[in-house]
Amino acid sequence: MNSKGNDVVDAVMFQAEIRRIEKLLYRIAWSYLGNNADVEDAVQDALIKAWEKRSSLRDMKQFKPWMTRILMNQCKDQLRKRKKWNFYPLEDAAAQEVEPPEPDAPVLEAMRKLKPELSLIITLHYVDGYSIQDVASSLGIPESTVKTRMRSARKQLSKTLLVEWEAES
């Protein structure tokens, strides 16, 4: 088969694998970046990088952890760039009315205070229903690391929520 034929097979396989893990990719990016515009940019940039570096993937069974690692690195790059720029709201923008918080806002706010890698694991396990094994496999990390991060995240969440609850009382 010529190289053009291989490119077509690679493109079809690549697309199929991406479709299979698309929701996971968006969840990962969301846990790091927290807004739709940045999430879409990060996923798109990660897909481009993965396509360009597809020859470095030696085993298609490792596609999901390989792709998630590329995306996580892309998200971290975006966060570093974001830190370089400090944006201050204009007085007019600050004076605009704010929407009322959602009923579960304290939990969401506590989640936002977690490090992205902790928030991601909590989201994948408790929101999306991934098993610890699936989270470990998806992120390419040991199960023991997932358990340790979950324990740390739960401890931080409980402290944050307890402090907020006591402040309201």
Could you explain the architecture of this structure?
The protein has 169 residues and is mainly alpha-helical. The protein folds into two domains: 1-86, Rna Polymerase Sigma Factor, Chain: A; 102-169, Winged helix-like DNA-binding domain superfamily/Winged helix DNA-binding domain (Arc Repressor Mutant, subunit A), CATH 1.10.10.10. It has eight helices and no strands. It has helices at 3-33, 36-52, 63-84, 91-95, 105-113, 116-127, 132-139, 143-168. Mean pLDDT is 80; it is low at 1-5 and 90-101.
A few lines on this structure:
With 169 residues, the protein is mainly alpha-helical. Helix content is 77%, strand content 0%.
Task: Please give a handful of descriptors for the protein shown.
single chain; 169 residues; mainly alpha; Rna Polymerase Sigma Factor, Chain: A; Arc Repressor Mutant, subunit A; 77% helix; disordered N terminus
Portion of residues within helices: over 70%
User: So what's the oligomer here?
Assistant: single chain
Q: Gyration radius, to the nearest Å?
A: 19 Å
Number of E-type strands? 0
Strand content: under 5%
Helical element count? 8
Could you tell me the CATH topology label of the largest domain: Rna Polymerase Sigma Factor, Chain: A
Judged by helices, strands and strand pairing, the structural class is mainly alpha
Could you tell me the mean pLDDT?
80
